[in-house]
Specification:
By secondary structure, the chain is α+β, with helices and mostly antiparallel strands. It has 7 helices and 9 strands. About 45% of the residues lie in helices and about 20% in strands. The longest helix has about 55 residues.
């Protein structure tokens, strides 16, 4: 019986099903779970030890301290509440379409504010669900902007990339100061970003512009350790598989050697009979 088993070794799956193999598998899984728990702990430490990038976005700062004309908008400037004073340029008010306000589609009325320093700033004055109301507000302020405050306060935002017009509506969609300068009167120098007013003038509604979420910079050392523990977990399971594979290959070699020895035995007997 032993010789029969050696001549016909079990397949790899059968080797894996042996009680000792299953016991070693359970041990490998337990080790992998422990390593995974260590990795999870390191990942949580990466978040806890991360640097919270706090910005005083809700403190109103002068626009000149946040951004400069002809300068790309920095990430730290986006979402910052700013204040600036200047003069509204009549004739440069118009409406934007397809503006979402906390999930509701509508229109913005935007204007051109020339700051006291002589720079051009795009300002989104307010939102309305009615197209004609946004257009009427723009036309009214194009005729007389004296009803608008000379000092404005709002949240500074990134410029939007312009896109080609679509459909029959001629109104633009994007809040893009880069494209507005082609329509404004004496636009230079211009800010790359724009401001959404905190309080919209009537009849418009204030634009929903929440404070930016707090950013957390991960601790990459703990993140690296977490990745290491994950690799250790995979290695524990791979070691078990490699051990099963080695046992299977060794039994294959032993079976092949036993079969070769069995084939040689009758040949040697035949040779002795010939000699005799």
């Amino acid at each position: 019986m032993r010789k029969a088993r050696s001549l016909f070794p079990p397949p790899l799956l059968a080797v894996m099903r042996r009680p000792t193999s299953i016991g070693l598998l359970l041990l490998a899984v337990a080790v992998a779970v422990v390593f995974a728990l260590f990795g999870q702990w390191q990942l949580s430490r990466a978040v806890q030890n991360g640097d919270v990038l706090e910005r005083p976005t809700e403190t109103v700062l002068p626009l000149s301290e946040v951004a400069e004309p002809h300068t790309p908008t920095s990430n730290r400037a986006v979402g910052q509440l700013v204040a600036v004073s200047g003069e509204w340029v009549e004739g440069d008010f118009f409406a934007l379409r397809d503006r979402l306000d906390n999930g509701d589609a509508g229109y913005w009325t935007v204007g051109h504010l020339r700051t006291d320093e002589g720079a051009s700033l795009a300002v989104a004055l307010g939102w309305t669900p009615e197209r004609q109301e946004a257009i009427d507000a723009a036309e009214r302020w194009n005729d007389d902007s004296s009803v608008l405050p000379a000092e404005v306060s709002g949240r500074f935002q990134h410029s939007e990339a312009p896109t080609p017009p679509e459909g029959d509506d001629p109104l633009p969609r994007e809040m893009s100061p880069a494209s507005f300068v082609n329509q404004w009167q004496d636009p230079e120098p211009a800010y790359a970003g724009y401001v959404t007013l905190r309080e919209a003038p009537e009849p418009l509604q204030s634009i929903w512009s929440p404070a930016p979420e707090t950013e957390v910079a991960l601790n990459f050392l703990n993140l690296f350790y977490a990745l290491e523990w994950v690799l250790f977990s995979v290695a524990a399971l791979y070691i078990w598989y490699r051990l099963m594979r080695d046992i299977y290959e060794r039994e294959q070699d032993e079976a092949a050697a036993a079969q070769a020895a069995g084939d040689d035995a009758p040949r040697e007997g035949a040779q002795r009979a010939t000699v005799d």
